[in-house]
Design brief:
mainly beta; Immunoglobulin-like; 9-stranded antiparallel sheet; 7-stranded mixed sheet
Amino acid sequence: MKKFSIMLMAALAFGFTACEDDDTNALPQSNPQEPLMTVEGVSVAPGIAVTEGATDLLATATASEKIAVLQVVEAVNLPANAELEFVMQISKSEDYSTSQEVATVVTDNVVYVDPIEWQAAHLAEMGKNPKAQTTYLRFAAYAVNGTSSVRLGGPDYYIGQSSLSVTPYPAEIFIDEAYYLEVNGEVVEQFGHSGDVYDNPVFVLKLDVSVDEVMNGWEWRVLAKSYVDGNTEKERTVFAPADDFVESTEGDLVTNVEGVEPQAGILVQDGLMLLTVNVETLSFAFTSAVENLYTPGDANGWNQTASQMLYTNDYVNYMGYAVLAPGGFKFTNAPDWNHTNYGDSGEAGMLSTDGGAGNLTVPEKGLYWCSVDIGALTYSTTQVVSIGVIGDATPGGWDADTDLTSEDFLVWKGTVALKGSGELKFRANDGWDINLGGDVNNLSAGGANIPTPGEGNWEVTLDLSKLPYSCTFTKK
């Protein structure tokens, strides 16, 4: 790596003299116990790409160029014979809650990034969408002498924070922002979808098909928004089963490329179903829509009927509380092992419907809030360590929870001095990410505030052992 050498800067002469009075010029090995170097002698300015506010990664790579992201204005008071190195950190958010690092090179006081390396980091941090996106940048600076390295300012210090619009390489295939179901030549409904279409190319639609509709003929295709809007020449905008007019509930799709015009499939099954379409892998499946997912596992003897159930509002996204244990668990869409089972795909947060998939795991036994997207095959589990009531009818108002307690993770109780007016809700972990409200006999995630039952001391009971969730207030 070519580095910015302080030997090239006359301004560093004083720094060299000060360090060379020591017995040795070698930098010590970096470790947490050593004193941190200040960054008072290092100043930087935005590079050309940042100043212009945008960069095109493919265009730069095609031109065999690198991207100027930072300009070193001054570097004094560094150890003798040390050279400056930088690592660029990119993020999709200004708080850098997630980020990726990109290596740099320093030439003639300018910090450059290879567009190919930036592209790899962009995909990991920003996703596969080929559209230009605002990207936040900052840099970790190091003083390096041979194998010794010291991070300037300490392990959490960054310089040169800025942002610019980054256009990544074009996507290999076109994925539209929305897709629609066409039945018997008429567009009938838009598919549901979550997340970015390039990161999640799976679109799902709930259908309720009657016997009469099936008997009269139910021919279907999938149309992209571009096609519906009139752009009938654009490719990858019409999808149908690989075999024309096939009577199948799952299989491969063909799409309109190189003049091919997909025909239609035929549905011969009635009832409440989900049509799942993956426009990247070109596949489809009709499956029965289910009201609940079960959570059999080590915590309940791998017994579906003894497990807690998740519920859904759209037959794609399921949510709810479940007691889970480190021994493992799975999600199933029936109270047996003969239907669809969701296990570990081997990738964090992703599910597999392979019957031989491994068990999902949690770090310790306890209550967890579970979220499952059976279309995208994603899931998350959040451990619930506390549940309380909050609201202007409670002692802490809307600022602090009054905690309840539980002996089995599922039934939570507590005596609470409630006010004669105001409202309340139940929430977990002293935060709003997981909260319940609405009808006391049918509590729902994010539901409405619950009116106070009246002034006085009340035994508040929250029952999460069965659906629907409920709460009671008993006057003490």
